[in-house]
């Protein structure tokens, strides 16, 4: 057919009695027709010889097979990432000095732990309200308001005159934290191109991790100038983060033409509860908060200090080694999930984390603890950012996901609270081995849930 078309390119079709169509005949004054234009023309035009049908088929096949260039990371994501670093480094500034600062009010050790836990408890309770406010007011506004609340809370703590004031100010910070955490997750879902959601989630998690690792170093130094200085510095860092995000997002909203900033319908829990992947994500969030955050950050350093060595640097080294393993895995896991799917990486990460926690049962030397924490950190780095990307897949870019994201955040906070508490009871009754054994079993629960759930992306689509 293509040969006949080419031979008769300039010859009128006498059998039809019609002259060639002047609008579609090639002309020296006009540009050559493109493949897409040719594919959209009618069959008679193609048969007059304007372009070969075989050439069109070959060209379209080549276009289909050509690899699509990955999209660039949007400016909104870079702004949120920069703000995340400021938030993380600021939050970790107060970690080394908060217990000592609370103790300076002349209270018992129990009341000191209450101040430390008040932030997480209030954030857990206020998360549902923050999710609903996000749907009514908007992500950017809730994000900035949340940062300002935590900044005011932190600065007020520096000027607290009594223990009661300190406790109230610390608790109010949990409200703001719930607001900006859920708003940030919603904006990550909205602004992340679907093809690179895993990469962006890994970038976000890695930035927060770097801030958390470096913050205590500066916090300790600032604490030498006075225990109130880190709290003021944290407040200033949060205000700076609010200015960065507000400025950039206002600017990009005026330039966007893809409708990303247009009002979106809210995704309710009733809509997503039937999604097995969402339910599996909730189980993962609980287990991750329990073992990867609660046990690894709170219980393991305690175990090192009590059972292995009283050297103060040892506990810090254990946490740092876990963070190194986490960072190494983050370099690969996000991009790999964009190509291979979310579910395989989440399951693999959970299994690796469980192996690391189980290894703590036989840890009788510091070297064994370091190896176990490195493995646990690797598993956490494989699964955590990928789970965040899976939640972004579930929410999508066409909805606001305040309520589903608030439940996801609540499950993680619940795990962070229950994990160390139950571990403490087990340690008192049966010893550290039982605490680590139970934590490893908890990590296997989301493995079962994800084995029964579908992936949130299609490898063929990617």
TrEMBL record:
Residue ranges, compositional bias (Polar residues): 1-28
Cellular compartments annotated: Cell membrane
UniProt keyword terms in alphabetical order: Cell membrane, Membrane, Transmembrane, Transmembrane helix, Transport
Annotated membrane topology: Multi-pass membrane protein
Membrane-spanning ranges: 77-99, 105-130, 142-161, 167-189, 201-219, 231-249, 282-307, 313-332, 344-362, 368-386, 407-427, 433-453
SUPFAM superfamilies in UniProt: MFS general substrate transporter
Annotated region (Disordered), positions in chain: 1-32
Pfam families: MFS_1 (PF07690)
Record flagged with keyword Membrane: yes
Entries under Gene3D superfamilies matching the protein: MFS general substrate transporter like domains, Multidrug resistance protein D
Major facilitator superfamily (MFS) profile domain span: 76-457
Entry superkingdom: Bacteria
Alphabetized PANTHER family for the sequence: MAJOR FACILITATOR SUPERFAMILY MFS_1, RESISTANCE PROTEIN MDTM, PUTATIVE-RELATED-RELATED
Name of this chain's protein: MFS transporter
């Amino acid at each position: 057919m293509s040969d006949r078309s080419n031979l008769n390119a300039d010859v009128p079709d006498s059998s039809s009695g019609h002259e060639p169509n002047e609008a579609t005949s090639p002309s020296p004054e006009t540009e050559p027709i493109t493949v897409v234009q040719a594919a959209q023309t009618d069959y008679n035009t193609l048969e007059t010889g304007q372009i070969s049908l075989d050439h069109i088929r070959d060209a379209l096949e080549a276009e289909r097979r050509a690899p699509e260039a990955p999209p660039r990371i949007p400016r909104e994501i870079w702004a949120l990432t920069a703000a995340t670093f400021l938030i993380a480094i600021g939050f970790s500034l107060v970690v080394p000095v908060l217990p000592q600062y609370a103790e300076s009010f002349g209270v018992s050790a129990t009341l000191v732990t209450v101040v430390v836990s008040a932030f997480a408890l209030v954030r857990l309770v206020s998360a549902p309200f923050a999710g609903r406010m996000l749907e009514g007011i908007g992500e950017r506004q809730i994000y900035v308001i949340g940062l300002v609340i935590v900044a005011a809370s932190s600065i007020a703590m520096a000027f607290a005159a009594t223990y009661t004031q300190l406790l109230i100010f610390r608790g109010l910070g949990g409200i703001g934290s719930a607001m900006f955490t859920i708003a940030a997750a919603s904006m990550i879902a909205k602004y992340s191109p679907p093809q690179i959601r895993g990469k962006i989630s890994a970038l976000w998690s890695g930035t927060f991790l770097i801030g958390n690792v470096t913050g205590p170093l500066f916090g300790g130094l600032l604490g030498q100038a006075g225990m109130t200085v880190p709290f003021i510095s944290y407040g200033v860092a949060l205000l700076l983060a609010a200015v960065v995000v507000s400025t950039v997002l206002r600017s990009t909203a005026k330039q966007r033409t893809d409708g990303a900033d247009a009002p979106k319908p809210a995704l309710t829990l009733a809509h997503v509860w039937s999604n097995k992947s969402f339910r599996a994500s909730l189980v993962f969030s609980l287990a991750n908060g329990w073992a990867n955050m609660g046990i690894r950050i709170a219980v393991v350093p305690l175990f090192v200090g009590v059972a292995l060595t009283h050297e103060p640097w040892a506990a810090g080294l254990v946490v740092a080694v876990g963070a190194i393993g986490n960072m190494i895995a983050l370099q690969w896991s996000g991009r790999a999930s964009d190509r291979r799917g979310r579910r395989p990486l989440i399951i693999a990460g959970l299994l690796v984390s469980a192996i690391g926690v189980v290894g703590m049962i036989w840890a009788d030397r510091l070297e064994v603890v370091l190896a176990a924490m490195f493995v646990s950190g690797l598993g956490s780095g494989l699964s955590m950012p990928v789970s965040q990307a899976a939640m972004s897949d579930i929410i999508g870019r066409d909805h606001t996901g305040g309520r589903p994201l608030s439940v996801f955040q609540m499950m993680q906070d619940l795990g962070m609270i229950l994990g160390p508490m139950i571990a403490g009871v087990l340690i008192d009754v049966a010893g550290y081995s039982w605490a680590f054994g139970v934590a490893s079993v908890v990590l296997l629960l989301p493995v079962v849930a994800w084995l029964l759930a579908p992936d949130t992306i299609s490898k063929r689509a990617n």
